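Lab notebook, design round three. We kept the backbone fixed and only want residue identities now. Task for the bench partner: fill in a sequence for the structure below.
Input structure tokens:
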């Protein structure tokens, strides 16, 4: 039979897999073909899951002991401290040029133009084929049917254009869903506020003015109730020939809670006005979304020092002591959306 796998390799493979949370021999076997670290460990000589499972079972005590030592050593060295973590990324080129990017309108126009070209080619080829077969077999004679060669190659491009349009449609749908969720959350917040339940946290921007107005109305109503109670008690005391000695209620304009609520309303109105102005200023300058017809999953990546790269943003999250905690690859050129708890 073939030579056996070196025990050091199998042991290293198990320790690494366990440290990554893998507990399946079949999964480890697949990772030896897919994951770079596993491929390096096994030198691309992939052990099957039966071999991995048999080795683990035969040497369970030794494997457990070594893995325990690894964990203790890592703890002693202070590895995996999460007080401070860092996120960094590198732009990787895709197999597509930036010149292949198209706006949505351009992609749809190109798709329509391409479809028209295919249709025109089909009509012309069909006519030419009929003429040729009529000459060969006679006008009423049977002839072999065939797909015109000009229609063969463009099919893959038409499929890529269709995929690019699907990417744009999906992105637009995701943006619309996010807006709908924000609107729903804002309405729920406002309904709770109207019901007298003060939701936790700051109100959503969409209803910040309405929420501040409700808060001011609530404070004014409370102040009016205080004024009414004060007047009633004072009248009752006067009817008995007494002088009411309670605290004098300030006018609403001087009440600290009313002043605070009005200030919040003014700030909310100012913030809403500023946001509307920013939206108006950016509407005309906002570039139309683009998608690459060669590789729709790639995106334009700004490079440090200037310039652009058609490709992907590859990110790595590390702990303070250099342990890599997570990796990702995305078309989004910014790192912030990935850096969430």
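Proposed sequence:
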């Amino acid at each position: 039979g073939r030579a056996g796998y070196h025990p050091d390799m199998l042991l290293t493979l198990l320790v690494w897999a366990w440290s990554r949370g893998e507990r399946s021999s079949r999964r480890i076997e697949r990772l030896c073909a897919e994951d770079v670290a596993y491929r390096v460990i096994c030198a691309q000589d992939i052990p099957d899951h039966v071999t991995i499972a048999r080795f683990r079972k035969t040497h369970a005590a030794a494997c457990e002991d070594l893995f325990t030592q690894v964990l203790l050593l890592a703890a002693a060295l202070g590895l995996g401290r999460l007080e401070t973590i860092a996120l960094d990324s590198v732009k990787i080129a895709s197999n597509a040029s930036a010149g292949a990017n198209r706006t949505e309108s351009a992609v749809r126009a190109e798709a329509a133009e391409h479809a028209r070209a295919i249709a025109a080619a089909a009509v012309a080829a069909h006519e030419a084929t009929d003429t040729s077969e009529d000459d060969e077999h006679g006008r009423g004679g049977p002839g072999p049917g065939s797909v015109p060669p000009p229609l063969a190659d463009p099919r893959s491009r038409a499929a890529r254009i269709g995929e690019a349009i699907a990417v744009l449609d999906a992105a637009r749908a995701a943006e619309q869903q996010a807006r709908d969720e924000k609107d729903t959350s804002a309405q729920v917040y406002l309904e709770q506020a109207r019901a007298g339940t003060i939701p936790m946290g700051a109100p959503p921007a969409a209803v910040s003015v309405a929420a501040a107005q409700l808060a001011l109305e609530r404070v004014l109503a409370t102040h009016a109730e205080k004024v009414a109670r004060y007047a009633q008690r004072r009248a009752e005391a006067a009817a008995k020939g007494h002088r009411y000695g309670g605290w004098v209620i300030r006018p609403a304009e001087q009440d600290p809670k009313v002043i605070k609520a009005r200030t919040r309303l003014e700030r909310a109105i100012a913030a809403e006005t500023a946001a509307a102005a920013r939206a108006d200023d950016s509407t005309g300058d906002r570039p139309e979304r683009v998608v690459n017809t060669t590789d729709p999953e790639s995106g334009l990546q700004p490079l440090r020092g200037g310039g652009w790269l058609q490709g992907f943003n590859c990110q790595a999250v590390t702990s303070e002591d250099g342990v890599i905690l997570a990796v990702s690859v995305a078309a989004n050129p910014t790192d912030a959306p990935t850096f969430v708890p």
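Keep this in mind before ordering anything: The beta strands are 85-93, 101-103, 290-292, 299-302, 308-319, 324-330.
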